[in-house]
Amino acid sequence: MAIGLCVGRKPIDNNPTINIGGVVQPGGIPAVRYTQGLLAVTSQHRLTGGVGIVDLLPGIDADLMGGGMFHSSQQFGDYTNTSISSYWLGFGLTWRFNRGSCEKLPAPERWSN
Fold it and tell me: Could you please report the per-residue DSSP string of 39-96?
């Protein structure tokens, strides 16, 4: 079983200039704030966890995971804001060769030269 917590820092500049990556934005600070809103990464906190079962069936492993990104929002100027949160579940099966019913095949354990 595994549990992870991700804590980050918002890369949003709260006091931007009209220069983004060396390019002066036509429209000044309102255009910069609009661009920040389109490309915003405001989420700082995520939590994930998962469990795995080895040999659920012969040679088949099962994994289940879930997680979430907690609600976050930010205002960019007078008319632009962003708001985000997400949650997810995942399930996977892994089939490992040379296990379970594959052991019955006439294939050798090791190939010779």
Answer: T-----EEEEEEEEEEEEETTEEEEEEEEEEEEEEEEETTTEEEEEEEEEEEEEEEEP
